[in-house]
Amino acid sequence: FSALRDPKTSFKDNSTLIVDNAERLSAKDAVGLLSYANESNLQLVLLNSSSRESNTNVLSLFKDGGAKDHTVLHDDNSTLMSITSEKDKRSRLKNVSKEYVNSIGLPKKTIVISTNKSDRSVLTDEIRAGLKEKDYLKSEGKRAYIESRTDVYLTTKEKGRVSSYSPGMVIEDRRTAKRESFSILSVNDEKKTLSLKNSFGDISVVKAKEFSDKDVRVFNSKSLEVVVGEKLKLTSTDRAKGNRAKDELVIKEISGNEMVGINMRTGEDVRYSTEEPMYADYNYVSGVGEVNSTNAKVIVPLSNRDLNANNINAIRMSGNEISVH
Q: What does the DSSP assignment read for 71-95?
């Protein structure tokens, strides 16, 4: 509230000013606030965020002076949480994956969340192994191996730094109508150059600063095994196919060099060539804050350090039941 004592503070005439934690206003700040309100014809909305009741609370003076008092009723947003103590991290991750696999077919949606990238990779492998064992993923029969590309988010300035790149990444130059792709073979920190191979197999050495442009995109590239029943999350919008980034695709058919998946948002079948890169990744484990849901069960592995109020509050955005390992 120190701004109320600053002579440079001003408010737009005839506007509404919402004051959070107004129960903490001192009498001096309240007088200053009323002065601004009179001067600029402000409508004041004072929030008693802590619902404190006290005769010395300055809000009681506003009520005594005739200010309208309203109560906001909140729906019950309680969260059911269970904690299973497991000292060994490996067994912790295995049990998270088992709980997820065993929850398939239950009415309530189940989401697995991990606070770090390396655990996500291990959990994905464990979950896929469990799904194959239960035959939710078809371990027998046709499968495809596709190139998965996921964005590496870099500013224009970062794209010009050789330290932003590592072997195996893919650079897509979209500055011309004909998109060019380059795989990074090696990085020379001393000369600030990248050794690149294009789609024709030609090798070139280029200064990193050549890619300092908004129409250059950088991706991590890896090979994904895909079988029938696989869940993929799209990482890029494809208007031609009617897909949006973050849409879920469930693979229903693999034949020859083609895959057919159902976009779970639209319900439409979408076809992909297995010989072209796909902007997608497995969709079994999410990061904190990536999924919003009011009625889902969240399974999450947390270390003692990560078991804190901030993480739990963020995880609650994904469901109303939390199982912590």
A: -PPPPP---EEEE---S-HHHHHHH
pTM of the model: 0.72
* Model pLDDT for residues 178-218, shown as the tens digit of each residue: 889 999 999 999 999 999 999 899 999 999 999 999 999 99
Q: Tell me the two tokens of residue 16.
A: 């509404």
Those residues whose C-beta lies under 8 Å from the C-beta of residue 240, and which sit 6 or more positions away, are none
Between CA 183 and CA 174 the distance in angstroms is: 15
- Residue 149 burial by CB count (10 A; 0-12/13-18/19+): exposed, middle or buried? buried
Could you report the per-residue pLDDT of 82-94, keeping only the tens digit for each?
999 888 899 999 9
What's the whole-number mean pLDDT along residues 298-306? 91
148 CB-contact burial (10 Å; exposed 0-12 / middle 13-18 / buried 19+): buried
The C-alpha atoms of residue 130 and residue 18 are separated, in whole angstroms, by: 52
